[in-house]
UniProtKB/TrEMBL annotation:
It is a multi-pass membrane protein. Pfam families: Cation_ATPase (PF13246), PhoLip_ATPase_C (PF16212), PhoLip_ATPase_N (PF16209). The gene is atp10d. It comes from Dicentrarchus labrax (European seabass). CDD domains: P-type_ATPase_APLT_Dnf-like. The active site is at D439. Coiled coil: none annotated. It comes from the Eukaryota. The keyword Chaperone does not apply. This is Phospholipid-transporting ATPase. Residues 74-128 form the P-type ATPase N-terminal domain. Its cofactor is Mg(2+). It is found in: Endomembrane system; Endoplasmic reticulum membrane; Membrane. GO terms for biological process: phospholipid translocation. Its main location: membrane.
Length: 1207
C-alpha cells in the first residue's frame, strides 16, 4: 500500500510552550490547531488481494466492522485455540509408527523380523523375531501417548479459561473461552488476570494511560513492565466507547521477537499514529497493579509471540555421541565380516561334503546356499549392532540430570533457585571442557551495585540501600535551601551558582534518566500522588519577574542574584518531606543504584507516568517534570536519553547517560560566558581524573550529560521522530538515526562509578578451574582498567604474571607485579588484554591464526570493550580452529550469542533478567557452582557414559562371538546352541538393567577428592577413557572372553552325548556370570541397589530357563527344551564348568590390580583387562599401568603441594 506523506510545519504558538508534546500533538490531530505539525495522508481506499496482503503485513479492524473486505480478512487469521498435541485418536497409530520408522534402530529390527519370515534364511521362529521390535515400538508408543495426553490436558485447561469479550450485538462484555477469541475482538481484563492473546492496549483505568504487566510466564522475569495506551486515543479514566472505534491497524506479520512490534493505527480521518512494543500486551503475561484494561486482539493462538517462542528443550549432539556413531559403523563392518565368513565357510563346507549321514538339500548350489546363510547370520548375530545402546544412553542421561538437579550444593537458598538442565543430552561434555569464556558483570560479580560519583562517594547495597553521602557535596547542595544563592566564583569555598546548577542537573538526570517504576507499600499502583507546593506557572512567573534562572544552565552569560525575600519564600515553603518508603523496580541494578543514590542527596523520584515524572529537589519540594520522549539504551549507541521540559526553566532538555568512551566524544565546551567555560573545563578535567581513578579501582563507569534544545530545533527533530515511530519498514534504523541526530554537542555534567562486588568464592572457583587445565577467558564490555582490576581480584591475573596489552595504537608488555616476588612463586606467565577495536582487526581472516597462536601461549585472555557479536566470534574462532570443547557463561541478553555458539552454554539467573537462562543449556544461580558442576558432575558423567559405552560394546561382541564360534562346528549353517527365547532375551532383558544402574550411580572418585584435587579433571581427559583405539582393545577383550567361555565347556563336554541345547546351557550361564561380574569389577561403587539389580538379573535368567524347561514343550521348534535345564542344573559338572569358565575369563582382572584414588588415599582394586597371553591384553595392561602409575605419582605430588601450602 502506497501512502503519500505531506508534512506542514506552521509557526509555533508561544502560548503553548509548556504543553507536553504528546498531549499537544493529540489536540492537534483532533482540532487542526496551527501549532506544531500536521500531516495528511492519501491512501488507496481498497486493499490489495488477500493473499498478497497477508504475505506483506497484517491488517486488523474491530470484528464488528461493516466493511465486508476487512471482515473476510479477519476470518483468515488463526483463532486463539492452541493445540500442542501431536496426535489425534485417528492419527495416532499411523503417525506414531511413521515417526518411529525415522529411527534407524527400528528400521533395522523390522528388516530383520521381516527377513526371518523367509524360510530359506529363517534362523528361528518368525514370531519370536517380532518380539524385540514389538516391544520397542510398544514401549515408545506408550511413552509418546502418555506425553501427548499430558499436553492434551494442558491445552484443554488453557483453552477453557474465561475472559470478557465485547459483544456488538449485546452492547456489553460477555464471558467467553480463550479458544473462541479471534483477531479484532475487544477484550477486557482486570488486575491479576492472564492475557489470553497479543493485544493492542486501547484503554487503562489508570488516568495516566498506563498499565503494568508481569512477564514471568514468558521470560521468567518478575519485575513489572510498564505498557502504554496508544497515543491519540481519548483521555483515560472513563470507559472506552467501543462502538465509536473505527480505526484500522496495520502491523507486521507474526514473529517471535518479544522486544519488537512495528505498525501504525489509522483513524477514519486519515491520521496515523505509530505503534511500538510498549503498546502491546503479550499472551501469558499477567496484569498487575491496574484495575481494568481493554485491548484489541492483533495476534491469536499459535501466531502469538509466546507460542512462537515455545520451542521446547534444546538439543545438541555431544562429542561422545559423535564418537559412538563411528564405533557403531565399525560394529557393522565386523558383522559383515563375520557373516561373510559364515557364508563362505558354509559354501566350502557344502562343496567338500561327501556321503553325509544326515539330510542335505542337494538341489541348492553351494554359492546360493552361502548367500542364504549370509542373511541367516545377519539375523543370528543381530545384537552385535548396539542399537539398544542409544536408548540406554538417553535413560542414563535422564538419571544423571536428576541427580544434578537435586544436588544441594548447587541450590541457592537465598534465591530459592536450583540448577536447571535445559539440554538433556550433553551432560558428559561437562567433563571435557578445555576453554571457558565468561562475562564479568553479573557473572563474576554480584551485579548488586555500590555507586560513586564525581565529587561523591556513596556506599549503596542493592538490598539494604544504606547510603553514606559525601559531606562536601551535601554542603554544596545545602545552598539550595539557604535564603540566598551564592554568587561567588567558588574560590572562597562557597560554590558558585553555576556549580550548584551543574550539581542539581546531575542529580536530576540520575533521578529521571531511567525506566524505573515507582511504588510504595501504601500505594501499590506505582504512582505516588503528591501535590507540588508551587505550580509550574507560579514558579515560572517568579523566575521571570526576578530575571533569575539558576537551573537553565549556561543560558545567560551573567547570573543575577535574587532578593532574599523571594528565595526565602520559595525554598522555605517548598521544603517537604515524606515518611513513605518508596520501592523502585528497575530492569537493571545500575538504574536502581543510581536512583537510590540520588535519593540519598534528596533528589527523589516519587512517581512516574507516561507523560510526567514527579521529583523532589532539595529546598524546592515536589515538581512535575514533563516527559516528552525516552530514547532507550541499545548496544549500538551505548547510551540512554530522556527528553523533558525542565520544571523550572521551561526549556526542552535532553539528559543522556552512557559509556564514558561515547559521552566524552559527544560532549563539547559550551559557548557563552568565560566563567561558564572555565567551570565546564574544570568539570571535564575532574571527570576524566575520576574516570581514570574509578577504572583503576575496578568500577563500572557512566557519564552524565545534557543538552538544551531550542523550540524550533526540537520541532524539527520531533517530526522525524514521529515519522520513524510510525514506520513499519526500517523502523529500528530510522529510530537509531533520529536518536543519534539528537545526542550531539552534549554538555558534560559528571560521571558515576558502579562498584560491582565479586560473588563469593569466585577466586577459588577460577583457581580450581585453572588447576583442572581449563583456560579461562573474560569477555566484557567494561574499560580495560576495570577488567584488569577484576582479573586481579578473582585471581585470574596473579602478581607474577605479565600483562600483554594489545591496542590499535600500541602493544605494551608490562609486569603485573614485582619481579622479586615472581622469583619466589611459580613460573611467570602472560595474560593478554585486548580491547574491542583491536579485536575487530584480530578477527579478520588474515589475522585470525596469529591472534589465536598468541592467545594459546597466554595463561588467560581478557577482551574488554567487546560487543555481543565479538564475544560470539571469539568463541566460534577458538571452538572451530582449535577443535576444543568450549563453555560460555553469562547472565545478560548481551551474552546470549556466545552462550548459543559454545559447545556448552551456561546462564546465570542474576539481576539482568532471564534472557541468558532461556538460551542456555544449563542455568545456575552463582558462578561458584561451576566448580562442582564441572569438576564433580562433569567428571562423573563423562566417566560413567564412556565406560558404559565400552561395556555395551564388550557385552554384545562377547555374546555374539559365542554364536560365531559355534558355526565352526555346525558347518556354518546359522544354527545356534540356545533356544531362540534365551537368544532374544539375553541382551534385551537379562543383561540390560545393570549397565543403566552403573551408568547413573557409579563414582570412580569421591566428590570431596575431586573438589580438593581439580587436577584429576585434567587427568581424566588425558587418560583417554574413550578414544578410537579403546574400541579395538575392548573388542579384543571380548574375543578373549568368548573364546574362554566357549571352549572350556566344549573341552569339558567333549566325547559326551549331550545335545546342542545341553551344550549351550553352561555356555549361556557362564556368559551371564562373566558379563555381570565384569560389570562389578569395572565399577568403583557398590551399593545395595547395585547388588539387588545384579541378583535380580541373574535370578531372572535362571528362573526363566528353569520354568521354560519344565513347562514349554513346543515353544522353540524344531528343538525341544523340555527338561534340558533341569537336567543340567542337577549335575555337579554344570557348576564346575561355570565356575572354571568364569574364573579363567576374569582372571586377568584379579591378577593385575591398578592404583585407585579413594578419599585422598590409594587403594588397590582389581583392574579391568583382557586375558593373559593375548597381545591386545598385554598392550592394554601396559597402557593402563603406565597411565595410572603416572596418575598416582601426579596425585601424590598434588597432595604434597597441598600439604606444603597449608603448612
Amino acid at each position: 500500500m502506497k501512502c503519500f506523506l505531506d508534512w506542514n510545519n506552521v509557526a509555533s504558538n508561544p502560548g503553548s510552550r509548556y504543553v507536553s508534546s504528546k498531549t499537544h500533538l493529540t489536540k492537534l490531530f483532533r482540532s487542526g490547531n496551527t501549532y506544531g505539525l500536521m500531516y495528511s495522508l492519501k491512501c488507496p481506499s481498497r486493499l490489495h488481494s488477500t493473499k498478497e496482503h497477508l504475505r506483506k503485513k497484517r491488517t486488523v479492524a474491530p470484528s464488528s466492522t461493516e466493511n465486508e473486505e476487512l471482515s473476510q480478512l479477519l476470518k483468515l487469521y488463526k483463532n486463539n485455540k492452541i493445540r500442542t498435541t501431536k496426535y489425534s485418536l485417528l492419527s495416532f497409530l499411523p503417525k506414531n509408527l511413521f515417526e518411529q520408522l525415522h529411527r534407524f534402530a527400528n528400521v533395522y529390527f523390522i528388516f530383520l523380523a521381516a527377513l526371518n519370515f523367509f524360510t530359506v534364511v529363517e534362523a528361528f521362529q518368525p514370531e519370536i523375531a517380532l518380539v524385540p521390535i514389538i516391544l520397542v515400538l510398544t514401549v515408545t508408543a506408550v511413552k509418546d501417548i502418555w506425553e501427548d495426553y499430558r499436553r492434551f490436558k494442558s491445552d484443554h485447561f488453557i483453552n477453557r479459561l474465561v475472559c470478557q469479550v465485547y459483544s456488538s450485538k449485546q452492547k456489553a462484555y460477555i464471558d467467553q473461552c480463550w479458544k473462541d477469541v479471534r483477531v479484532g475482538d475487544f477484550v477486557r481484563l482486570s488486575c491479576n488476570e492472564i492475557i489470553p492473546a497479543d493485544m493492542l492496549l486501547l484503554y487503562s483505568s489508570d488516568p495516566r494511560g498506563v498499565c503494568y504487566i508481569e512477564t514471568a510466564n514468558l521470560d521468567g522475569e518478575t519485575n513489572l513492565k510498564q505498557r502504554q495506551v496508544v497515543l491519540d486515543l481519548p483521555l483515560q479514566g472513563a470507559e472506552l466507547n467501543l462502538e465509536s472505534f473505527h480505526s484500522r491497524i496495520e502491523c507486521e506479520n507474526p514473529n517471535n521477537d518479544l522486544s519488537r512490534f512495528r505498525g501504525y493505527m489509522e483513524h477514519p480521518n486519515g491520521v496515523r499514529v505509530g505503534l511500538h512494543n510498549n503498546n502491546l500486551l503479550l499472551r501469558s503475561c499477567t496484569i498487575r497493579n491496574t484495575e481494568t484494561v481493554v485491548g484489541i486482539v492483533v495476534y491469536a493462538g499459535h501466531e502469538t509471540k509466546a507460542m512462537m517462542n515455545n520451542s521446547g528443550p534444546r538439543y545438541k549432539r555431544s562429542h561422545l555421541e559423535r564418537r559412538l556413531n563411528t564405533d557403531v559403523l565399525w560394529c557393522v563392518l565386523l558383522l559383515i565380516i563375520m557373516c561373510l565368513t559364515g557364508a563362505i565357510g558354509h559354501g566350502l563346507w557344502l562343496k567338500n561334503l561327501k556321503d553325509p549321514v544326515f539330510e542335505v538339500d542337494g538341489e541348492t548350489s553351494p554359492a546360493l546356499a552361502g548367500f542364504y546363510v549370509f542373511w541367516t547370520m545377519i539375523i543370528v548375530l543381530q545384537v552385535l549392532i548396539p542399537i539398544s545402546l542409544y536408548v540406554s544412553i538417553e535413560i542414563v542421561k535422564l538419571g544423571q540430570i536428576y541427580f544434578i538437579h537435586n544436588d544441594l550444593a548447587l541450590y541457592n537458598e537465598q534465591l530459592d533457585s536450583r540448577i536447571q538442565c535445559r539440554a538433556l543430552n550433553i551432560t558428559e561434555d561437562l567433563g571435557r571442557i578445555q576453554y571457558l569464556f565468561s562475562d564479568k558483570t553479573g557473572t563474576l560479580t554480584e551485579n548488586k551495585m555500590v555507586s560513586c560519583f564525581s565529587r561523591v562517594c556513596v556506599c549503596l547495597s542493592a538490598q539494604a540501600r544504606e547510603v553514606v553521602p559525601d559531606p562536601e557535596l551535601v554542603r554544596k547542595l545545602s545552598w539550595l535551601c539557604s535564603p540566598t544563592l551564592p554568587l561567588s566564583d567558588g574560590s572562597s569555598g562557597t560554590p558558585s551558582s553555576l556549580e550548584v546548577t551543574y550539581i542539581t542537573d546531575f542529580f536530576l538526570a540520575l533521578a529521571i534518566c531511567n525506566s524505573v517504576v515507582v511504588s510504595s507499600p501504601s500505594q501499590p499502583r506505582h504512582m505516588v500522588t503528591r501535590t507540588p507546593l508551587k505550580s509550574l506557572e507560579e514558579i515560572k512567573l517568579m523566575f521571570q519577574r526576578f530575571s533569575f534562572s539558576p537551573f537553565s544552565a549556561l543560558s545567560p552569560p551573567l547570573i543575577k542574584g535574587s532578593p532574599r525575600s523571594f528565595t526565602s519564600r520559595l525554598f522555605t515553603n517548598g521544603a517537604s518531606d515524606s515518611d513513605d518508603e518508596l520501592l523502585y523496580e528497575a530492569e537493571s541494578p545500575d538504574e536502581a543504584a543510581l536512583v537510590h543514590a540520588a535519593q540519598a542527596y534528596h533528589c527523589t523520584l516519587r512517581g512516574r507516568s507516561a507523560e510526567s515524572l514527579l521529583v523532589d529537589l532539595p529546598g524546592i519540594g515536589s515538581l512535575a517534570v514533563q516527559l516528552l520522549h525516552i530514547l532507550p539504551f541499545d548496544s549500538n549507541r551505548k547510551r540512554m536519553s530522556v527528553v523533558v521540559r525542565h520544571p523550572l526553566s521551561g526549556q526542552v532538555v535532553v539528559y543522556t547517560k552512557g559509556a564514558d568512551s561515547v559521552i566524552m566524544d559527544l560532549s563539547e565546551t559550551p559557548k557563552g560566558a568565560e566563567q561558564a567555560q572555565e567551570i565546564y573545563s574544570h568539570i571535564r578535567e575532574q571527570t576524566q581524573k575520576h574516570l581514570d581513578s574509578y577504572a583503576r579501582d575496578g568500577l563500572r563507569t557512566l557519564c552524565i550529560s545534557k543538552k538544551i534544545l531550542e523550540e524550533e530545533e526540537y520541532e524539527v527533530w520531533l517530526k522525524r521522530q514521529l515519522l520513524a515511530e510510525s514506520s513499519i519498514e526500517n523502523r529500528e534504523e530510522l529510530l537509531l538515526e533520529s536518536a543519534q541526530r539528537l545526542e550531539t554537542n552534549l554538555t558534560l555534567l559528571g560521571t558515576t562509578g558502579i562498584v560491582d562486588r565479586l560473588q563469593e568464592e569466585v577466586p577459588e572457583t577460577i583457581e580450581a578451574l585453572q588447576r583442572a587445565g581449563i583456560k579461562v577467558w573474560v569477555l566484557t564490555g567494561d574499560k580495560k582498567e576495570t577488567a584488569i582490576n577484576i582479573a586481579y581480584a578473582c585471581k585470574l591475573l596473579r602478581p607474577n604474571d605479565q600483562l600483554l596489552t594489545a591496542s590499535c595504537s600500541l602493544t605494551v608488555l608490562t609486569a603485573a607485579g614485582d619481579h622479586e616476588e615472581s622469583s619466589l612463586g611459580s613460573a611467570a606467565g602472560f595474560v593478554l588484554v585486548i580491547d574491542g577495536r583491536t579485536l575487530d582487526w584480530a578477527l579478520q581472516e588474515e589475522l585470525k591464526s596469529d591472534f589465536l597462536e598468541l592467545s594459546c601461549r597466554c595463561n588467560a585472555v581478557i577482551c574488554c570493550r567487546s560487543t555481543p557479536l565479538q564475544k560470539s566470534q571469539v568463541v566460534r574462532l577458538v571452538r572451530d580452529q582449535l577443535g576444543v570443547m568450549t563453555l560460555a557463561v553469562g547472565d545478560g541478553a548481551n551474552d546470549v550469542s556466545m552462550i548459543q555458539v559454545a559447545d556448552v552454554g551456561i546462564g546465570i539467573s542474576g539481576q539482568e533478567g532471564m534472557q541468558a537462562v532461556m538460551s542456555s543449556d544449563f542455568a545456575i544461580s552463582r558462578f561458584k557452582h561451576l566448580s562442582k558442576l564441572l569438576l564433580v558432575h562433569g567428571h562423573w558423567c563423562y566417566s560413567r557414559l564412556a565406560n558404559m559405552i565400552l561395556y555395551f560394546i564388550y557385552k554384545n561382541v562377547m555374546y555374539v562371538n559365542l554364536l560365531f564360534w559355534y558355526q565352526f562346528f555346525c558347518g556354518f549353517s546359522g544354527s545356534v546352541m540356545s533356544n531362540s527365547w534365551v537368544l532374544i532375551l539375553f541382551n534385551l532383558l537379562f543383561t540390560s538393567v545393570p549397565p543403566l544402574i552403573f551408568g547413573v550411580l557409579d563414582r570412580d572418585t569421591p566428590a570431596d577428592t575431586l573438589m580438593e584435587l581439580p587436577e584429576l579433571y585434567r587427568v581424566a581427559q588425558t587418560s583417554k577413557v574413550y578414544v578410537p583405539y579403546m574400541f579395538w582393545v575392548t573388542v579384543l577383550d571380548a574375543f578373549y572372553q568368548s573364546l574362554v567361555c566357549f571352549f572350556v565347556p566344549y573341552f569339558a563336554l567333549a566325547g559326551s552325548d549331550v545335545g546342542a541345547l545341553s551344550f549351550g546351557s553352561p555356555i549361556n550361564a557362564s556368559a551371564l556370570l562373566i558379563i555381570l561380574l565384569h560389570q562389578v569389577i569395572e565399577s568403583r561403587t557398590l551399593t545395595w541397589i547395585h547388588m539387588l539389580v545384579l541378583v535380580l538379573s541373574g535370578g531372572s535368567y535362571f528362573g526363566f530357563v528353569l520354568l521354560f524347561s519344565l513347562f514349554c514343550v513346543s515353544c522353540s521348534p524344531p528343538t525341544n527344551p523340555l527338561g534340558v535345564e533341569t537336567l543340567q542344573m542337577s549335575q555337579p559338572l554344570f557348576y564346575i564348568v561355570c565356575a572354571l569358565t568364569t574364573v579363567m575369563a576374569l582372571l586377568p582382572r584379579y591378577t593385575h590390580p591398578r592404583p585407585h584414588v579413594h578419599c585422598g588415599k590409594f587403594t588397590h582394586k582389581t583392574y579391568t583387562t583382557s586375558g593373559a597371553g593375548v597381545p591386545g591384553e598385554v598392550g592394554r595392561l601396559l597402557i593402563y599401568g603406565l597411565t595410572f602409575f603416572k596418575e598416582a605419582l601426579f596425585v601424590c605430588e598434588m597432595k604434597l603441594q597441598h600439604i606444603c601450602i597449608s603448612g
